[in-house]
Amino acid sequence: MKSRSTLATWLSSLDGRRLARVLEMRRDATAPPEPRSVGELADRLQRPGAVALALPQLALPHLQVAEALAALPAPASRDALAELLGTADDDTTRELEAVLEALADQALVWPDGGGQLRMAGPLRKAWDAPLGLDTRLEVLLSGATSEELRGMLAKLGIKPPSSKSQRLAALVEHHSDPERILSLVAKAPAAPRKLLEGRAGAGPARPARFIRFGSPGPDPEPGDRWALERGLLIQDRHRYGPARMPAEVALALRGPGWHAPFQPVPPSPDLAPVTPSEVDHEASAAASAFAAGAASVLSACSAAAPTRLKSGGIGARELARIGKAAHADDAVVRLTLETAYAAGLLARDSDCVAPSEAYDTWVEQEPPEQFAVLLRAWRNLPLTPTQARDEDNKALPALAGAPPCDGCVQARHGLLAAAAWLPAGQGVLVASDLGPLIAWHRPLADSSPIGPPFATAIREAELLGVLARGALSAVGVHLRTGDMERLGIECRRLLPSATSTAHLGADLTAVVTGTPSARLTSLLNTVADRETSDTASVWRFSADSVRRALDAGRTPKAITADLAAVAAGPLPQPLSYLIADTARGYGRVRIAPAACVLHGDEPALLAELAAHRRLAELGLRQLAPTVLISRSPLDTTLAALRAEGYAPVAETDEGTVRVERARPRRAAAPVPAPRGSQARDGGRMAVTSTAKESPASDPSALAVQLLAAPATIPEPAPFDGGAPFATDTEEIVAGWAKRLPYSDVRQLAHAIDAGQAITVEYVATSGNRTVRTLSRLDLDPPYLEAWCHLRGAERVFTLSRIHSVTSVAPE
């Protein structure tokens, strides 16, 4: 609570521009409903969930300074921090000041009124043992008796004061002087000296793994006893667990030359000059190839929805089938499936993953718009999609539904930050050299489990054209800043529009340079077989492919006219002959369902079928010169005749030709549609959310508003006739969720009214504490019905068991 009040005081002292900078860096704290006072803003900024969102985005020097500050007693002075980090020269001092300024912009570290440094409470608790140091002496001795303190002082040759507090202060003062500690240990016997020096750099001692709970530890060894008698090691009075070394003692024994790690300058990879045109050229080629491959992959999924494994996800066999059908390698298939699923173009449908209705809209767009949709999904994808094998080299399925990986997101953001740091006109000589630079920008990111660090994320960036010639492309620049409007403009600049014409050759091929349009792809897929898919795609015509088009209900005349409309030149004569010859033999034999009946106008052809040895298994029997009957079903008979080179057609019960056009499978939306706006059921009130978009707040305007408002605003009490609530929902939530402060009540009520997702800390009846993201909120006091993203299903939550609320972080 003390740190929150000092943070509110510091925020109130800022000018509008500086406060706006804090609001810009910590967008999560300004999510609707906007904070009404600096006090409420300080409360939001220091919540554990909010600090947890900011922590992974810190660079290495920021984390190093924060850890060093956590190791010092609070509040700490700048001089003490500088001494611990060893920033003696002017350059490192300036770099330390820059890091402290950056941490202040995040409201994680700030100066108080006395010039001391304060830090957010949850950030201080991020390390169990900052710098490998245990708790300070004063804390470790909080349970010691006055007589025990007197004995320690006597062993140190210090006259014990009369009171316990004075004795503790004297002991703390003695151990706070590194020279005294070093002098004392230098005079110690060999065994305790060796023990203490070894423990000083080993970090805090941990309890033995197999010590039974509640049983005392072993008696101290002679070396331990000497250190324990002088307070250099502290043993629990009941001897539970190993003896612990106070932080002051460990720091002193590490010596005056030891300093906490501080690396303010990022590593420098080998660079090579590169021009913007070279970067654009390579990025354009990569993006165009991926856009074409992605369209082919999703087209293959539309034609035959991939089947899911029983354990979940799409296995290697289905991935290979999709890759073969789309002429795409495994990395492109996996990357497309994961980004398309995240963008809502694919969804689970029973035992399959099928395209959704959004795919039908997407497929009609131009390649730049299609590519931008997948690129935006990749930016915040909570996994590394092209990671095909785990640490044990076992194949990983795609779309397996693994828990979200924030480290994977940070690896991608770190890649964008590292590439943006490179000097203008320079690119890394070897792309993998970006790995250490990414680790500097995002130390908490997940690295590649196999191969060089972050190799998988780097390869994905190259596949998408985000990274080209070792430098960040124009697409990557706007992807990093999150400017989606500019990203769309760059995609349209780098990617050509879809090609609507094909070069039809006398060798019965159709060649399309660039990305074919959806209409051209659909036509060629119907009448030809795709052979390659790259910067140029090739289809090949055959009698089987033309017959397939005829089976789909197309007439020879329509096929010829459609191909002539998309041909770059006149229709080649061999292709015209192929269509005519196939059409001439098409339908000469007709199969009617009866289980089944074959009939035609040519008795000689029917007799030939009846005598055909390879068709004997069908059980054909001639009833009349133009009629055969088969013991096999219609589809089996149809397939057998086609396998022998005939071109029969199937008829319906009415005698018309059956059109064999399969309707593409479409998956339903992954989350059920909202139930409505407001309803009353049996006298109970139900406030139901509907999805709405809230405009992003302007940090500058909000800063002015907060500085003009009172530092704190009184919280209304529910049902007491006091200060009014802003909405009825707030009053209802406050009446039941009594553990929530008013700031949390406001956020939860706003999420219910605005139909927005919210993150809550929930304690179940079993006592288990979980953090869940909820959407489609339906208030039914004392319960809250919602779609739980953790469970992937509707769940009912008791309002009184919600312990904290955090707005979902904006992308």
TrEMBL record:
Originating organism: Streptomyces qinglanensis
What InterPro entries does this protein's entry cite? Answer: WYL_dom, XPB/Ssl2_N
Q: Which regions form coiled coils?
A: none
Domain WYL intervals: 746-806
The molecule here is called Uncharacterized protein
Q: Where is the Helicase XPB/Ssl2 N-terminal domain?
A: 506-624
Location of region: Disordered: 663-696
Name of a matching Pfam family: WYL
